Please model this.
Amino acid sequence: VIGEEGATALGWMYTMAGVGSVAGPLIGGIITPQTVRALNRAVLVGFILVPFAWFLVGVAVPFEVVLIGFMLRGMAGSINWTYSTVLIQMQTPDNFLGRVVSFDFAIFTLMMALSVWLGGAAADVFGLDPRSLVLWIVGLSVLPVLFWGWTMRGAVGQAQASVQSSQVPGD
Model:
């Protein structure tokens, strides 16, 4: 425990999450082309980083590794938030954009509240210590990876079919 009742440790964890939240889109913006396909891939990378980062937090003994996990989690979350918002803006007609962004934010807020409540309830009902709870979060964090990868696979298939159907015979 670092600091009085762990206050300093908690402060460092929040700091590293904040650093990651700023660094994620900044670094991603340098290396990711601003195309729908590239942004979808970047979101997938973000979803892959989430369980990896939580795994580091859950199994780490040195506190520095926990901090790296929090930083990576911040990077992944901010990449997903930023790029998914950009994808919405790129793919939504202007006359619906405000409603779609509002709905996205409402669902995000609802899911955050629900996930915090479920995490606390699971810890209470099943008597999970913080490490065990984090490892359960790791397992559940794989679900968005699978879902996003599956939807991307379908989108790639549709794009290939569209390109093939638009080609003129004899080209």
Q: What stands out?
A: The chain is about 85% helix and 0% strand.
